[in-house]
């Protein structure tokens, strides 16, 4: 066992990212049943929808699972109360100050993990009393840090500053990537994009097919004035870039983004007008697989790479 498998009582130190429009109970329970930690992505769910997914996840797995809660969303108080009422044991918080909810959740016996993009925020999360942090590099899909620090440099910098367990995220979809992150100081990994292209992902099949077609350079971090997000370069992305040429105000960017743009892309499958959030690692994802198979392949690749690394000893 390592610090992450011990903390969550799971078999493998693989956490499935709680991605909006991708991470319903089917994916979370499948990952948990396969030995990882599945997360329900609360960011795209109304409170009562979240409650339903938690209840269905409990019925679908007897293994530990958690809920990812972006704190910038409305109804945050209602969502936190639902998590407590439904007896969720693990909560990952992101996009906000960890001090706001950590003590409340911990007082209810909940294990709390916070997502950060820098060692400064990692220290703040540790001071707030979280049990572990996810250190997410700029390669990741979806909302991201403004610093553009890559996973390769972020993990050792965070490791230097904090004592609590570290989960590496951003650009990890293989066992080799997992081993590299752990050699750099991570105790486990969080995997998003690879699970977005799983059979159990709640994303639209159009989006899943797009993920497996993506090549190197087909995504870009943009919209930093609002909340930095890594997107596939589609029509919507090109519209954003065209607007940037006119030095737009923040209000003009908000108007272009509009409402439910991510839902339109990832959940409804509009590949032109939708916001398609995926990580740079998508260039290494070539097929849609069951979550269990993804974990099996990652662990087999991890073991192979671990044995091979002896070749580099001098």
From TrEMBL:
This is 2-nitropropane dioxygenase. The keyword Flavoprotein applies. Keywords: Dioxygenase, Flavoprotein, FMN, Oxidoreductase. It comes from the Bacteria. InterPro entries: Aldolase_TIM (IPR013785), NMO (IPR004136). GO terms for molecular function: dioxygenase activity; nitronate monooxygenase activity. It comes from Flavobacterium reichenbachii.
């Amino acid at each position: 066992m390592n610090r992450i498998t011990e903390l969550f009582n799971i078999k493998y130190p693989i956490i499935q990212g709680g991605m909006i429009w991708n991470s319903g109970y089917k994916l979370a329970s499948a990952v948990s049943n396969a030995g990882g930690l599945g997360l329900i992505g609360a960011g795209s769910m109304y409170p009562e929808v979240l409650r339903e997914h938690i209840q269905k996840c409990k019925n679908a797995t007897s293994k530990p699972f958690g809920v990812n809660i972006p704190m910038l969303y409305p109804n945050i108080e209602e969502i936190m109360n639902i998590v407590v009422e439904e007896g969720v044991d693990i909560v990952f918080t992101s996009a906000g100050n960890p001090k706001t909810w950590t003590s409340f959740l911990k007082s209810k016996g909940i294990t709390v993990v916070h997502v950060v993009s820098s060692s400064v925020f990692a220290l703040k999360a540790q001071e707030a009393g979280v049990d572990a942090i996810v250190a997410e590099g700029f390669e990741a899909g979806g909302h991201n840090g403004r610093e553009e620090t890559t996973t390769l440099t972020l993990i050792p910098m965070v490791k230097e500053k904090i004592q609590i367990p570290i989960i590496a995220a951003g650009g990890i979809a293989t066992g080799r990537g997992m081993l590299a992150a752990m050699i750099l100081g991570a105790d486990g990994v969080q995997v998003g994009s690879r699970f977005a292209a799983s059979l159990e992902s709640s994303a639209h099949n159009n989006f899943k097919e797009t993920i497996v077609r993506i090549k190197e350079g087909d995504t870009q971090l943009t919209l930093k004035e609002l909340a930095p997000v890594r997107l596939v370069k589609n029509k919507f992305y090109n519209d954003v870039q065209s607007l940037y040429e006119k030095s737009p105000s923040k209000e003009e960017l908000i108007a272009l983004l509009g409402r439910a743009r991510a839902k339109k892309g990832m959940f409804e499958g509009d590949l032109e007008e939708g916001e398609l959030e995926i990580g740079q690692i998508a260039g290494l994802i070539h097929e849609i697989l069951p979550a269990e198979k993804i974990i099996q392949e990652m662990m087999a690749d991890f073991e192979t790479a671990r044995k091979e690394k002896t070749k580099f000893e001098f």
